[in-house]
Amino acid sequence: MPLLDETFGIGELARLTGVPVRTIRFYCDEGIVDSVRSTGGHRRFDPAAVERLGLVRRLRGLGLGLPSIRHVLDGERSVAEAVAVERAALDVRIADLSWRRASLRAVEEAGPADRAGRLELLAAVENGGAARDALIDFWRRTLPAPVPGAVLTAFVAMAVPEPPADPTPPQVVAFAELFALAGDRALTRILLSMARADAELVADRTALMNGIGEACALARPLVRAGEPPRAGPELDRFVAAHAAVRGGGDTPRFRGRLLAHVAADRDPRMRRYWRLVAEAGGDASALGLAHLWLTDALERSVGGVGAGGACGPTGPAGVGTARSAAGPPIAGAAPSG
Length: 337
What we know:
63% helix; disordered C terminus; 337 residues; mainly alpha; two-stranded antiparallel sheet; 5 strands; elongated; 15 helices
């Protein structure tokens, strides 16, 4: 600190910086700005206090709190780092507010007969992030093990849409319905039961996942084009993938048995799940819908063939990877609802 005759008082500092005297006193008490006392007990400040206090004022003007400002003043964080942290926190708050606004609009726009049900549905979901976390947990619990980590990551990216930064009322309703499906204990029990049986009966889970993924990739363009489910190379690849790991062959009898064991994948709730993914902002031709297309095609190909015998359930998700014409592996979802 320079000599007292090289310092100035709190009133002059307030004039130079535009910061009120009362606020400067507070900053002094908090250790944000240093001062010394004159012989009369008055606060005195050196020239560096002007620059320091000016920086504090600008950062406060951007909404930064004193702890963040202290990190900058102490050299623990740069200004760029501090404002980046503040901006990220603000993004989260804005996303929460956007979700709340869309939820309120969704309730407001509902008809009188539907308003109470919609209010209950939306009130159960705190925000888009909470809904997404619940969906990820749902798939981690119900996917048949073992699932390679990379496949699980790719599947989740496809099966669990990212909440939009500024969602529409229909999107928050779709996320809320997905959240409700993830909490459906009866559906979870069905999928877990299939997963356990599948783990016992399928000889090579990785081969099945890859085969289903390839079949879904073949069917995906047909789903995009709105083509009705039908027999063809896409269905043949799907059946062959199951036959290869179950010790069977692609026969009418095998197809009939296979149809019986993909019943859970064709459950109306799973069918609804994939429609909601598209409504929530996900890919309208996601591989889950491709798998649904394949199982519907299987039903048409079976026709009147009996479904006796047992080839083992397919499991709730029969996820797989397939290399599309574009190149990188993509997740193939067996839940097809």
